[in-house]
Amino acid sequence: xxxxxxxxxxxxxxxxxxxxxxxxxxxxxxxxxxxxxxxxxxxxxxxxxxxxxxxxxxxxxxxxxxxxxxxxxxxxxxxxxxxxxxxxxxxxxxxxxxxxxxxxxxxxxxxxxxxxxxxxxxxxxxxxxxxxxxxxxxxxxxxxxxxxxxxxxxxxxxxxxxxxxxxxxxxxxxxxxxxxxxxxxxxxxxxxxxxxxxxxxxxxxx
Length: 206
What we know:
Number of strands: 11
Oligomer: single chain
Largest sheet: 6 strands, mixed
Order of helices and strands: EHEEHEHHEEHEEHEEEH
CATH topology: DHBP synthase
């Protein structure tokens, strides 16, 4: 375990991720576990470590809104949501860009993207130069961890690094909204409320 305040934290985490290792990190919502999304072997190992069904796609974290255009078909509605909620606790499900492939998407033609409101994590993603997985750092079915000790208890030696950034600010998972359907559909209610989404989407949200 390494404290987030350690000056070598960003480079160490980025180096391990680039080498195909799994890294647990703090976010603005809950603690997550990351692999480079384009590294098939690392992502498949992540599915196994979590005990997650291989047909259950994982969200993807990016460092800024500009990166979304390389991974997804970004519509005007998506731009409106990004402008209002990113960086922040909203995962937006969009159509996948044809050129992007990752086993994290579980064979779907959609992709869930989020820019976390966490400076350290965005710096790690920028240093890696690749999107990373944004799934919570827990075994499937267990409570999403909100502290590094919880992560260490659940993940143990199955990961190469746990970054201790203190208690999660929000303590809840991100809201997930699918805008590939009409009306847009909330797949998971989290930090961002239905009312906040309706302010952008209008009444057309289910």
